[in-house]
Specification:
The protein is an alpha/beta fold. It is built from 10 helices and 10 strands. Strand 9, helix 9 and strand 10 form a beta-alpha-beta unit. Helix 5 runs parallel beside helix 7, helix 7 packs antiparallel against helix 8 and helix 8 packs parallel to helix 9.
């Protein structure tokens, strides 16, 4: 079964063709970073308009890459939420219209389910059940994943997501957009220990997180010390160390609490090198294994949507969709 995946929930247009027998055949992403950079953040209306411009050329590209024609498509999976309403509507409208004309099913997919299952696309995939650490721009959650559609929330952030904390802190340090990767890059040139930042909720005894205070603490350090370029790098390093320490500690605590031996890391922040190093070391010491999606599938892409849609179709567990058709800018994964 050949599944076309369409992702348009935020500032990346991603299309992919996944074959249930042959695996991922082609995927292509267009990032809108340049489009939004001048505004310091995503402008929803511009995002929607750009998705409209990119979607057909990207479809042609993945069809050519897979050596397939539109008539070979057996189903179309699209991100139905959560995300920006207008941006989601572009993908949903296109997917539903194409599915109608090809007379194939259209499958709404939860964006986080895409991220969560994306490590299963790698050559050495994890097996159910596993613990998943979802760290994106909008979410920070620990889940127990027993199978497709079986997601138990173990803990989550009470305020900002980890990626959001990276982005907001980068912005207040005057770094460019998108802030997360830039802050991480600068952190590699500095060293932690020179500034004092908290480790929020490290000893809270549960699996929840809180990152908004960290951003405020950085702001206070900037006000008090007016760091120069080298100081800023050290501050970034300390900030990254704080987030990484809390994420790694809680992920390991989740493994312990569930008795599971596999940790899956998904979402944009999963690309962070310091986080990977800390998790690799911690998980090995705990006698467990950690799995990441391929680096290019860490951030938003169509492959994870095609794959999640294919899993939903083959397991007969269609997501409880928004209704025929609609999108859900806010949508809890447990309700999918
Ligand atoms: O999963 P994703 O592509 O989009 C959402 O669904 O949110 O994640 C994007 C988030 C952004 O907040 C971005 O700053 C962050 O992931 N991010 C990083 C890194 N790469 C992306 N944060 C820290 N270090 C990175 N290397
Ligand atoms: Zn995402």
């Amino acid at each position: 079964m050949l599944v076309l995946g369409i992702e348009s929930s935020c500032d990346e247009t991603g299309l992919a063709l996944y074959d249930t027998a042959r695996g991922l055949l082609a995927h292509a992403v267009h990032s809108q970073i340049d489009l939004h950079a001048a505004y310091g953040g995503v402008v929803p209306e511009l995002a929607s308009r750009d998705h409209i411009r990119r979607i057909v050329p990207l479809l042609r590209q993945v069809l050519a890459g897979a050596g397939a024609g539109s008539g070979d498509i057996d189903a179309i999976a699209y991100t139905a939420g959560p995300g920006l309403a207008g941006a989601l509507l572009v993908g949903a409208g296109f997917a539903e219209a194409l599915a109608f004309s090809l007379q194939v099913p259209a499958v709404p997919v939860h964006h986080l389910e895409g991220h969560l299952l994306s490590p299963l696309l790698s050559a050495d995939p994890p097996h159910f059940p596993f613990v998943a650490l979802l760290v994106s721009g909008g979410h920070t959650q620990l889940m127990r994943v027993a199978g497709v559609g079986q997601y138990e929330l173990l803990g989550e952030t009470l305020d900002d997501a980890a990626g959001e904390a990276f982005d907001k802190t980068a912005k207040l340090l005057g770094l460019g957009y998108p802030g997360g990767p830039q802050l991480a890059q600068l952190a590699e040139r500095g060293a932690p220990g020179r500034f004092d930042l908290p480790r929020p909720m490290l000893h809270s005894g549960d699996l929840n997180f809180s990152f908004s205070g960290l951003k405020t603490a950085v702001l206070t350090q900037v006000r008090d010390h007016a760091p120069d370029a080298a100081g800023k790098a050290d501050l970034c390093a300390e900030f990254q160390a704080a987030i990484v320490e809390v994420l790694a500690a809680k992920a390991l605590a989740a493994l312990k609490a569930t008795g599971l031996k596999q940790l899956v890391v998904a979402g944009g922040v999963g690309a962070n090198r310091a986080l990977r190093a800390a998790l690799d070391a911690g998980v090995r010491a705990a006698g467990a294994r950690v799995f990441y999606p391929e680096l290019e599938l860490c951030t938003d892409n169509g492959a994870m949507i095609a794959f999640a849609g294919a899993q939903r179709l083959t397991s007969g567990k269609a997501a409880k969709a928004a209704g025929r058709f609609g999108v859900r800018p806010r949508w809890n994964l447990q309700e999918a």
